[in-house]
């Protein structure tokens, strides 16, 4: 799959604001600041399609991007960041859960975790929840450029033990070096075709 075009469509909180139409969607989920928005920018090869930030909690709404005029990427707000205001934390859960639970267009989730750290309780919770809901999930371990290659496989094995995933099922990724980009494109094409 080649990504030839990408455009921001809309931000949404609730279902009445989700874009109309039948285009299939893949959503990107993970802890706040893990690199979801940077990963999307890397996939579409645009530096600033999606806003990224050193400060966790940058993405606060569901953001929809139309790709190749034929499917959507949805950037989800991150979870597990304690310092977001209580008011926001109270809306995060319902906002993302309602989306994951009700969105007919949703074909799968890219679950993004930090290669450097073992999956957090929130990561494990989301992973189990997606399995229970039978939502296709692609596990990605990102920020690989921050570690030497020799550390990648041992860390993938640890993450695999924690999530119950075989280590080679992880895509080891870096938005900086584009490590894993081609592999993720292949998986995305599979998920979008409902394979
Ligand atoms: N070195 C390196 N830095 C990364 C990578 N991915 C993201 N970052 C940095 O990590 C920070 C957070 O990235 P974002 O993409 O904004 O993270 P996010 O998951 O969208 O965060 P929220 O929107 O707050 O949930 C930024 O400073 C990015 O530049 C990566 O693969 N390698
Ligand atoms: Mg973001």
Description:
Helix content is 32%, strand content 21%. It has 195 residues and is of the alpha/beta class. The two termini are 15 Å apart. The model has no long low-confidence stretch (mean pLDDT 91). The site of guanosine-5'-triphosphate has 24 residues, from α1. The site of magnesium ion has 5 residues, from α1.
Q: Number of helical segments? A: 5
Spatial order of strands in the largest sheet? 1-3-4-2-5-6-7
Principal-axes geometry comes out as globular
Bound molecules: guanosine-5'-triphosphate, magnesium ion
Q: What is the helix fraction of residues, given as a range?
A: 25-40%
Mean pLDDT comes to 91
Category by helix and strand content: alpha/beta
How many beta strands in the DSSP annotation? 7
Rg, Å, rounded: 16 Å
**pLDDT under 50 segments (min length 5)?**
none
Run of helices and strands? EEHEEHEHEHEH
User: What is the strand content?
Assistant: 15-25%
